[in-house]
Amino acid sequence: MFSRRLIIRAAQFSTSQSKKTEKLWENPWKHALHQQEQPRTSAKVLEVPIDWSYVERLMPIEIIPDVPKHETYPTPSGWTPPTEAAKTHSYYVRRRRDHMLPLYLERKRDLLNEKTLDFDYVELVVLRNVDGNIFDCENELRQFVEAQLDHPIATHVDELKGRIKIKGAPRKIIEQFLYSKGF
């Protein structure tokens, strides 16, 4: 009986409220559609002159310097500039920003030494920035290095990244190959 009276009074309360004014939370779409237009204000833009010279001094130089000129080649360090012969191959090896050959050394963990129970490490030479037919480059490089060393070497070609990894060859011989091809 108590719950029946409460329901009747709640129904009477809700009908009396709806007769007066409908609240915003009861029907938000009705209030959103019938809202009066409010005047719009636009922001004013003011351009302030800024002296960027202080910031520009801190920015890195994006211009790659020209190839340095020397009296004789190769220089005492063994560096030589690229020649026109490099354009005759089906592949091209781009130099780095500092005009050096893109040769890098990597040390990788190799097989487990069973006597010492420690891993042996192997040094790999990585040739990067190879464009064009990378498999021709790898084939000629392998033939050149194997002729110099008198033993086979292992190579791995990553065509998507333009890299060749060489195991079992010193960096100096790979430099000789690239200089002989004009890169």
Automatic annotation (TrEMBL):
Gene3D superfamilies: SUI1-like domain (3.30.780.10). Its main location: mitochondrion. One of its GO terms (cellular component) is mitochondrial large ribosomal subunit. Keywords: Mitochondrion, Ribonucleoprotein, Ribosomal protein. GO terms for biological process: translation. GO terms for molecular function: structural constituent of ribosome. Signal peptide: none annotated. It is found in: Mitochondrion. Belongs to the mitochondrion-specific ribosomal protein mL49 family. This is Large ribosomal subunit protein mL49.
